[in-house]
Amino acid sequence: MFGDAFSAGSLVDEDGECLLPFVLEKLRENEGDKDAFDRSMADKFYSDSSDPIKTASNIRLGMKNYGIVDQNGRFTDVGEKLYSLRNDEEELYERLAEHILLELDGIKAMDIIRDLQLAGEQTTTSNIYRELDRQYDIYVHEGSTHWNQMRGWLSEAGLINTQTSYIEVDWQKLDRIVGVNRETRLELSGLSEAQQAFLKTLASLDPDEPIPNNEVRDLAEETHGVYIDHKSTTADILDPLADAGFIEYESTVDVTGKPSVVEPTEKFETEVMGPVLENVSEHSGVPREVLRQSFDEIREQMESNDTHVKGRALEALAVKIGSLLDLDFVDWQLRGVETGGAEVDVVMDSIAVDFSRWQIQCKNTDDRIRTKHVAKEVGLSRMLQTNVILMIGRSGVVPDARRFAKRIMRDQNLTILFLTGADLDEMDERPSHLTDTLASQTSQIQRLKSINSQPGLGTRLEDSDEFEEEDQSEDTSLDDF
After folding, report:
1. Which of the pair, 317 or 279, is modelled with greater confidence?
2. 329 — phi, psi (to 5°)?
3. Diameter of the chain by CA atoms?
4. Confidence (pLDDT) at 251
5. To which H or E segment does residue 340 belong?
6. pTM of this structure
């Protein structure tokens, strides 16, 4: 962001009130005449400067870099919108804030502020610049004032303070300004919560062929916590989304027992899928084209002789599963490209009604997940402050590892879940298998914890076979721990 003199703190009157409406009026009066506009800015704001015109020209250059005017000094579409709101300052500053957040990387800075606060770090300018570089490859010189300029405009919209070094953000207002899902930039305000959940789930699935609507519906219900009446899915979900141009569906009302199949439209690709992939790709560093692969394609590439291909495929698997569970990417602990596609560790957060941090570990080896692998992740969870560990093993899980996980869960505030290669195969045909199998495991874990807290209530789950695989041939000693 390069704002120059176009900042809320520079364009003020003697009482300190920001005069953006005045600036927009003068731009309209002198549209296309850059010299005349610069003179009007110099007379108003820089009459005492040693070089008023040169200094004032930075206002126009800043407006250009903000996408408000073009190189000829004329309003862009964004500028026209802001000009039309010049007499409604509250709406004017909120729309400018929306533009900064969504189009000028402002949302990335806000997410970094949230991450720093959650990590207990100071939200200093240097820390924000460091994370912009680390997370997004956006380098800002430490002496730059770009962040303060952006912060000033966001403050005019009531989103962030400017008076103290400790940053305070009105997160609820930010979400309202940006939209229902600021992370993915979806403009779905006219849709119901269930319809939004259906579309977001469809985006996470990214099917390469028509998909049964009940698969999308069931997964949406599980991951987004919505209720969709199965008897009126067509009337409540499919018809409105088709009318809005997001999907096409083929009705099977005349075919008993067969669900309608859903197919995304070009509008869906542009307004929903594109922003979803862009956001996930930017955060995780996994290329968009890799994220678009099906589970079947990912599984094939995990078998590749090219270690780079294997690594990317394993990363895509972890991120794709996290997205299907409606989790937000936080950071990599270990990347597939660093291990030749043998394993990855990713941290993802759920910020639904309650906060939970997930630690997802994928192993792409011929060896099954063993007790020592679970123990390593449990140890890592204490440092990462995670409360859910999801371990994905291409070759499966030995019974001992499941029993060890059960013992850990009985004594600690941890949930440890497992997926295998067989689960991945099933998910490619039936995506809702993901939530079905995890729900089954969490149900058993709930019983484990409640029974353990009340001695004497029936059979102890540690003595049952509920958590074990059918294959009992693996050595079940704990020597590896």
Report:
1. 317
2. -65, 135
3. 87
4. 79
5. none
6. 0.56
* φ, ψ dihedrals at 371, nearest 5°: -55, -40
**Crossing angle between the packed helical segments 106-118 and 89-103, to the nearest 10 degrees:** 80
Question: Using CA atoms, how far apart are residues 395 and 364, in angstroms rounded to an integer?
Answer: 8
pLDDT tens sequence across 375-384: 999 998 888 8
Residue 136 is predicted with a pLDDT of: 74
Whole-number Å distance between alpha carbons of 302 and 311: 8
> Residues 191, 168: contact at Cβ < 8 Å?
no
CB 375 within 8 A of CB 481: yes
Answer whether 75's CB lies under 8 Å from 27's CB: yes
* Least confident window among 144-148, 174-178, 291-295, 468-472: 468-472
Using alpha carbons, select from 202, 433, 466 the residue that is nearest to residue 323. 202
Distance CA 364, CA 314 (A): 7
Alpha-carbon distance values, 313 to 191, 294, 299, 373, 441 (Å): 34, 10, 8, 21, 26
| 179-186 contacts at long range (C-beta below 8 A, 24 or more positions apart) | 182/101, 182/107, 183/107, 183/279, 183/328, 184/272, 184/275, 184/276, 184/279, 185/102, 185/275, 185/279, 186/271, 186/272, 186/275, 186/276
191-211, pLDDT tens digit by residue? 788 898 899 889 888 888 899
Alpha-carbon distance of 176 to 182, in angstroms, equals 9
| Res 238 pLDDT > 90 | yes
Quote the distance between the C-alpha of residue 76 and its chain's center. Answer: 29
Side chain identity at 183, as an amino acid letter? Answer: E
d(CA 368, CA 373): 10
Read off the pLDDT of residues 321-361 as tens digits, 9 standing for 90 and up: 998 888 888 888 888 888 888 999 998 888 655 678 899 99
Residue 248 phi, psi dihedral angles, 5° rounding: -125, 145
Joined together, the tokens standing for residue 438 give 């995890």
Q: Residue 7 class from Cβ within 10 Å (0-12 exposed, 13-18 middle, 19+ buried)?
A: buried
Indicate the DSSP class of residue 368.
P
Residue 84 has pLDDT above 50, yes or no: yes
Task: List, in sequence order, every residue forming a beta bridge with 212; answer none if it has no partner.
Answer: 261
3-class secondary structure, 225: coil
Question: What is the distance between the alpha carbons of residues 261 and 102, in angstroms, rounded to a whole number?
Answer: 33
